[in-house]
Design a protein that fits this description.
With 793 residues, this protein is of the alpha/beta class. The protein has 26 helices and 28 strands. The chain has three domains: 287 residues, 3-Layer(bba) Sandwich (FAD/NAD(P)-binding domain), CATH 3.50.50; 165 residues, FAD/NAD(P)-binding domain, CATH 3.50.50; 278 residues, Rossmann fold (3-Layer(aba) Sandwich), CATH 3.40.50. The strands form six sheets. Strands 1, 2, 3, 4, 5, 6, 17 and 18 form an eight-stranded mixed beta sheet that branches. Strands 24-23-22-25-26-27-28 form a seven-stranded parallel beta sheet, with helices on both faces. β27, α21 and β28 form a beta-alpha-beta unit.
Length: 793
């Protein structure tokens, strides 16, 4: 494809990407990485770059450290400053585009005038200044800082001087000797004011609201550090992760205005040390909580305001005359130049009015001033359309690259899912979008963004926060890790698309959400420790909540405790729902909860049977019924059912336990056959004797008893291998087929040699009185609560 010229644009493509900034570039790179070549990047400018091409005002620089402000897969090792400046950032973007092979797919000087969904053809029709384009999917990435906002001031059209916005800087217009009015004191103004102050004759800075300005730890990156970046593997990535972690901590603080109020001491100190005049200092003192607006960083802004040719006007402008401006103090100030540092149409961009969905309405009309989307990416009524850096996806603390990469992977996964399921259209369900946005707005209500006492661009014209994501980007990345078909309507040419059978996707435990029943002790706790070490988020469910909380506290910040009675559908449902609401979709479920009664079957009370089957069998069954449908809808997931070798053998004096484990082994195998090819897998783990509370009081000598961690390693191994059966220890695996073929006389001799009669020793019985009594009590509770009846559909 040509990247510029007068030729017409390609008539049909699989994916049309609107916008050639970092968002559009990131999306293009992800498609190429996935082997997708049928796409085009439509950029209205004469060069890629977006925000960093448009904003060229003096002093333009990033307010995020340069180490973090780059793609994770294209980290630049030769940044000149800790906070990169505009020319360097723009050069980085163009370099990445060339090296990643994106340029052949770019159409420059191509402005999309409208995008309309054709319901009959199930395609998007894009009208551009260079012709029409049809696409199956459209990715809208113009960027939130795209359309300059100019205030509608009375008399502005009468002004005889020169006006321009900071994003449309007039480099052909010399400022030397000019009388300049700057309107706005946001992130752009605090950068260009110190740069133009030495040039102009007189500078008036009109400030409606005093912003928080913090020290900027900026300096040139010296040769030693640059050498480390280039030559020490992992150094730059480690620094990047450290900075990223720090920004995430700031986000957590922003959820609590009281915490941010305490952190504002740094801003007060900076103001006090740089501004000695008490009157000016009072005028520059913010009246809202730190973080309510975007944090500003500068070491030169306050000094510039105190120069002889500069006047801070602590008011907004109310009127413009032919020769100057009038502030809210009613004073007329003669100027010949007005520079607007008034930001952008972040939540009400005109481009939203040029995208028309299924009902023929534009995004602008549907949103009615309050943009919303599901995960900031998809909107009901706009099939096969995706937004980059969409509503409620921004943050007031970190790098947009984190968001861009997560979204690009998610969108590519959505397109890939549509292809596999032979779906013509994918559209987020209205109920899913509504529930998501209710949750987002509820979470935002108490954050500093909403409750910090300021009016920021985060709030749309209806007063609703349409810009900020209320949780960490770690949380967002987890939610965007995989496209979830269950949240969407996927429709093929002849009706609803059928899920494609597929090989199970690889499970990446780093960041995976793992649910473990019976997680407070024994095998469950050991497995939890292993999963945490692998980087997973582990949710421990146990009937003993206090013990689960202790276990989670010992495991660290990636472990969470929940009360769970696996024999109760309501309890199990709540467990699953809370995990997915608070931590994201469950990637791995370990059905581990169990009880192990021992003794003569004919002496057992019915309550023992109820407890054993209720926990060991019905608990496992419930877990699969509640979690498997969600995993299948997503096309990925793994369930581990912890059974026992007793599920393959006939062990005297453990009859009820043996029955429950036979049920688990058989159930797992049968269900595995039903879900084969869905991308979800089932493993049954069968340990022999294990040193846990369940075997307490039983002499385990001669049984090759295992530690809980031995079983835990088998559970984690199954996540990698997805093998159907795991036997612990492995050498016992050969006994299973031998057992199936051996004569019963021989089997009796084998079991006699293992000494099952030890379970009837008086010492053992006495040692297990407490445990066996607990099983009976649990069985009585099962009967009282009607748990077994409750599992029926």
């Amino acid at each position: 494809m040509a990247i510029q010229g007068d030729s017409r644009v390609p008539g049909k493509v699989r994916v049309a990407i609107i916008g050639g900034g970092f968002s559009g570039l990131g999306m293009a790179i992800e498609l190429l990485r996935e082997g997708m070549r049928d796409f085009v990047v439509l950029e209205k400018g004469s060069q890629l770059g977006g925000t960093w091409r448009e904003n060229t005002y003096p002093g333009c620089a990033c307010d995020v450290p340069s180490t973090l402000y780059s793609y994770s897969f294209e980290q630049k090792s030769d940044w000149r400053h800790v906070f990169a400046e505009q020319p360097e950032i723009q050069a980085y973007l163009l370099d990445v585009a060339q090296r990643r092979g994106v340029l052949p797919y770019v159409e420059l000087r191509t402005e999309v005038q409208s995008s309309r969904w054709d319901a009959s053809a199930r395609r998007w029709r894009l009208s551009t200044n260079r012709g029409e384009i049809e696409s199956d999917f459209v990715v809208i990435g113009p960027g939130p800082l795209h359309e300059p906002r100019r205030p509608a001031l009375p008399g502005l059209d009468l002004f005889r001087g020169t006006t321009f916005h900071s994003a449309e800087w007039r480099h052909d217009y010399p400022l030397q000797g000019r009388r300049v009015a700057v309107l706005g004191t946001g992130s752009s103004a605090i950068q260009f004011v110190p740069k133009i102050q030495p040039l102009v004759e007189k500078l008036f800075v009109f400030q409606r609201t005093a912003p928080w300005v913090l020290p900027k730890p900026d300096h040139e990156i010296g040769k030693p550090v640059a050498w480390l970046f280039r030559n020490v593997p992992g150094f730059q990535n480690g620094l990047r992760k450290t900075i990223y972690g720090a920004t995430e901590l700031l986000q957590i603080a922003q959820r609590h205005p009281s915490v941010m109020e305490k952190l504002s001491g740094l801003g007060r100190w900076h103001l006090k040390t740089q501004v000695r005049d008490p009157v000016l200092r009072d005028q520059l003192t913010p009246r809202f909580t730190l973080g309510c607006k975007r944090l500003l960083l500068s070491n030169t802004y306050y000094p510039a305001l105190q120069t002889a040719n500069t006047e801070l006007v602590p008011y907004g402008v109310t009127q413009v005359t032919e020769t100057g401006v009038v502030g809210a103090d009613s004073v007329h100030r003669e100027v010949d130049t007005i520079i607007f540092g008034t930001g952008f149409h972040a939540t009400d961009a005109a481009s939203f009015g040029r995208v028309y969905g299924r009902e023929g309405k534009s995004l602008e009309a549907v949103w009615a001033g309050s943009p919303e989307a599901y995960l900031g990416t998809t909107c009901h009524g706009f099939p096969n359309a995706f937004l980059m850096l969409g509503p409620n996806l921004g943050n007031g603390h970190g790098s947009a690259f984190i968001l861009i990469e997560a979204q690009a992977r998610y969108i590519a996964d959505a397109i890939r899912t549509a292809e596999k399921q032979k779906a013509d259209t994918i559209e987020v369900k209205s109920s899913v979008q509504r529930a998501w946005n209710d949750k987002v707005q509820g979470a935002l209500a108490t954050t500093v963004f909403n409750a910090g006492g300021c009016a920021s661009w985060y709030l749309d014209k209806n007063g609703r926060n349409s810009a900020i994501y209320p949780w960490t980007t770690i949380d967002l990345r987890r939610r965007l890790r995989h496209f979830e078909p269950a949240s969407f309507e996927l429709v093929a040419a002849k009706g609803k698309a059928k899920p494609a059978r597929k090989r199970p996707p690889k499970i990446e435990l780093d960041g995976a959400v793992v649910a473990i029943t019976g997680g407070a002790r024994g095998i469950g706790l050991s497995a939890a420790r292993r999963f945490v070490e692998a980087g997973a988020i582990v949710c421990l469910g146990d009937i003993d909540l206090d013990e689960a909380k202790k276990a989670a506290a010992a495991l660290g910040s990636r472990a969470f405790a929940f009360r769970l009675d696996v024999s109760q559908r309501r309890s199990f449902q709540s467990f699953v729902d809370r995990i997915e609401a608070e931590h994201g979709p469950i990637d791995v479920l370990v059905n581990n909860a169990g009880v192990m009664p021992t003794g003569r079957f004919l002496d057992e009370s019915d309550s023992v049977d109820r407890a054993t089957m209720g926990v060991n069998h019905f608990g496992t069954s419930l877990g699969m019924k509640l979690v498997l449908p969600r995993m299948i809808a997503r096309g990925r997931g793994h369930v581990v059912n912890v059974a026992s070798l007793a599920g393959k053998f006939e062990v005297p004096w453990m009859a009820t336990y043996v029955a429950s484990k036979h049920a688990t082994v058989g159930l797992t195998g049968a269900v595995r056959g039903e879900i084969e090819g869905t991308g979800v897998t089932l493993t049954v783990v069968m340990p022999g004797a294990v040193k846990t509370r369940l075997s307490g009081g039983i002499p385990l000598g001669g049984l090759l008893a295992q530690e809980p961690d031995d079983v835990a390693r088998g559970i984690l191994k199954s996540c990698r291998t997805r093998q159907p059966d795991v036997v612990v220890p492995e050498l016992f695996a050969g006994f299973v087929p031998i057992y199936a073929l051996a004569p019963r006389a021989a089997l009796r001799k084998i079991f006699s040699a293992l000494g099952p009669d030890r379970l009837l020793d008086e010492g053992v019985i006495e040692a297990r009185v407490g445990y066996e009594g607990g099983v009976r009590e649990q069985g009585e509770a099962v009967r009282a609560q009607g748990a077994i009846d409750a599992v029926a559909p």
